[in-house]
Amino acid sequence: MPPWREPVYTPPEMLPLLAPRRWWLLALIALPLLAALAQTLVWRWTSSQVDSAFMAWAEARRAQGWAISHGPPEHGGWPFAATLHLPEVRFIGAAGTVPGGLEWTAETLTLRVAFPRLGELEIEAGGFQRLRLGDSEAPFIADRMVAVVPLEPGVPPRDGRFSTDRLRIGLPGGALEIRNTSGRFEARMSATEAEPALVVAVESRDILLPATSPLGRSISLLQTELAMTGPVPGGRQPVRRAETWRDGGGTLDLRALTIRWGAVGLEGAATLALDERLQPMGAGTLRLTGAAEALAALAEAGWIAPRVALAAQAMASFVARPGTDGGPPQIEVPLTLDNRTIAVSRIPLGRVPPLAWPGESDQP
């Protein structure tokens, strides 16, 4: 006889207890699948948002006369981020954006939205890059160069932040290296008179200059904050836009400037505007610490005569004031820029080159 086994008998009262176990087992199997499906849907939606943001920005720039090109785009980053990778990027500014033209190229440009920060767009430029402003051209590369802006397709960024690590810039006199830079910006396209339309704050640390100087090659700190006030005019003609901005009360405010260069410290603030011939004019204040050390270094390097350095040191000690919070003595002097002439305490130092506007040949 074939082997047989008596079936297991389950009492009826046990059936309600076994049914929930089956549902738990099905749930344990279904939950990862549902999570993966949801993640994929979110990734696809986020990827489409990244595409829309870049396409809207590019179309707006092309409508203004910019030329934008890049290699075949690649999508990636799943499951923890949605990325758009663009190789061989090239941006050429519209005519009149910068006198002589503007062009920026990069080996790669990556747009990324990382979960769960779905409202932030990270823009990272990588590889060898080149920037041309008029007749000046500078190649540069960084270990990391990234900006973060709100992800709002079709809307210009209203604020953002940016940073670089180990930025190296090729200059005619050698390589300029900045260990790290961080900054932020805020923009208000609807700003009226006396309201800031654009605010930019930048902090750079450990700047290594291309060549040595009496104060050394290393600048330990450079901080600045700029604010452009007044209405932001439209149009493609730089001269007309500048006139509209000037007539609307536009100013460029250097809210703060701090430099730490060896034993020398420099702080200042200034306000600039455009005169009737669209040339910069303005006034500000400069505070200097370490003047005696700077003069001694200049004399030792042969930049100024020792006798002149001694006389200047005596004058500096006479006009110096005690520093704030027990700091070193500082010299405070007023600066002015009028009719292209820079003056310190009403003493002319020199003239700045005229600001040539694109399309105008009769500038002073």
Strand content: 35-45%
Oligomerization state: single chain
The rounded Rg comes to 30 Å
Mean of all residue-level pLDDT scores: 84
H-E string: HEEEEEEEEEEHEEEHHEEE
- Poorly predicted tracts of residues: none
How helical, in percent, are the residues? 10-25%
Total helix count?
A: 4
Q: Please summarize the sheet with the most strands.
A: 16 strands, antiparallel
Net shape:
globular
* Structural class estimated from helices and strands: alpha+beta
Span between N and C termini?
A: 118 Å
Secondary structure: number of strands: 16
Task: Describe what this molecule looks like in 3D.
The protein has 364 residues and is α+β, with helices and mostly antiparallel strands. It has helices at residues 15-63, 238-247, 291-300, 306-319, and strands at 67-69, 74-76, 81-92, 102-114, 120-133, 136-150, 159-171, 174-187, 196-208, 218-229, 251-261, 264-274, 280-289, 330-338, 341-344, 347-351. The chain has a 16-stranded antiparallel β-sheet that branches. Helix 3 runs antiparallel to helix 4 (306-319). The longest helix has 49 residues, at 15-63.
Task: Describe the secondary structure blueprint for this structure.
Elements: H1 15-63, E1 67-69, E2 74-76, E3 81-92, E4 102-114, E5 120-133, E6 136-150, E7 159-171, E8 174-187, E9 196-208, E10 218-229, H2 238-247, E11 251-261, E12 264-274, E13 280-289, H3 291-300, H4 306-319, E14 330-338, E15 341-344, E16 347-351
Antiparallel strand pairs: 1-3, 2-3, 3-4, 4-5, 5-6, 6-7, 7-8, 8-9, 9-10, 10-11, 11-12, 12-13, 13-14, 14-15, 15-16
Helix pairs in contact: 3-4
